[in-house]
Amino acid sequence: MTMLDPGSLTLLVTGATSGIGLATARRFAGAGARVVAVGRRAERLAALKAEFGDLVHTLVLDVCDEAATFAAFSSLPAPFDAYNVVFANAGLALGLEPAHEARLADWKTMVDTNITGMLYTVRAALPAMVARKQGHLVFTGSIAGDYSYPGANVYGATKAFVKQFSLNVWADVAGSGVRVTNIEPGLTETEFSVVRFAGDQGRADSVYAGTEPMTGEDIAEQVFFACTLPRHVNINRIQSMASQQAFGPLVLKRNPV
Question: What global pTM score does this model have?
Answer without folding.
Answer: 0.95
